[in-house]
Amino acid sequence: MAQRYTKLAEQLIETALLEKLERLTIHWQKSLPGLIGGHNTSRFAGPGQEFLDHRNFHHGDDLRAVNWRVFLRLEKLFLKMFQLEPRIPVRMLIDVSKSMELGAISKFNYARKLAGALCYVGLVRLDSICLQPFSNKLADSFVAGGGRHRFQPAVNFLSSVKPGGTTNFLEVARDFVASYPQRGLVIVISDFLDDGDCEKPLQFLSDFGHELILVHLWAPEDREPPWEGELELEDSENGQHVELSFDSDARKMYTQAFDEYAQALRRVALRNNGRYVGLPTDVPVDEAIFGPLVRAGAME
């Protein structure tokens, strides 16, 4: 089924990865009254349920959901997927600020690929998906649900997004709760570099009832700068310059401060029954999904 996608989709995510992603589910911890989703995403035929799509059969799936007519024709097992309403919305806040362009491996491109992979997982499991880029404010969004046939439009949307602007988590959090009053799962994909405070706005989102999964991206040089000597640095977002002397001791102190900041983000997520995942961009996207994201409980 995954092989039918076009070259554009393959440029964002390799076709071989799409089929592997079909066995995963986006997982959340909270139980929201009147809403379903996550591990309760698909059922076999029953009253009041609308058929939407097929997906590949995987070990442990319910044989009662197999489309046996398709099997007789193709000699391959596919599961019938049905919509159950209402569903918990899965919204991805994707950082597209100027700092995300930086890195030998672009954080921006990495974020788009990761968002695309998570979007595919959600669509296959019939989740309601919202892709919401942001910098200092919310940009135009993409909303989809109802099966894998909506993945190509999602790829087109992600491919059209361009990086730029400064980061302002406080304004973004205010805009978000005003634009999305229904509680749901919020996956924030960002380097979390903001001259202001990130922790309070994230807590603000949680206080409004949203469950948080924080995906913290960094380029290896973000955490351990390789440079030494007299340096002049320019802020990629506001253009400010700073001159400093940098040696091995300064690098050690900087890396320690970076790790302390990452731990502060992690505490925000965990104290609100959410998840935190730190990902350097030199970890391939497929390894990040089936490794750290699964271990953190964001996927299962």
List keywords for this structure.
single chain, 300 residues, alpha/beta, Rossmann fold, 2 domains, six-stranded mixed sheet
Description:
Helix 4 (107-124) runs antiparallel to helix 5 and helix 6 runs parallel beside helix 7. It is elongated, with a radius of gyration of 20 Å. Helix content is 36%, strand content 21%. The chain has a 6-stranded mixed β-sheet, sandwiched between helices. Strands 1-2 form a two-stranded antiparallel sheet. It has a two-stranded antiparallel sheet with strand order 8-9. The chain has 2 domains: 42-83, no CATH class; 89-295, von Willebrand factor, type A domain (Rossmann fold), CATH 3.40.50.410. The chain has helices spanning 7-12, 15-21, 68-74, 107-124, 151-160, 169-179, 199-207, 220-223, 248-271, 285-295; strands at residues 50-56, 78-83, 89-95, 128-134, 142-144, 185-190, 211-218, 229-234, 241-246, 275-280. The longest helix has 24 residues, at 248-271. With 300 residues, it is α/β, with parallel strands linked by helices.
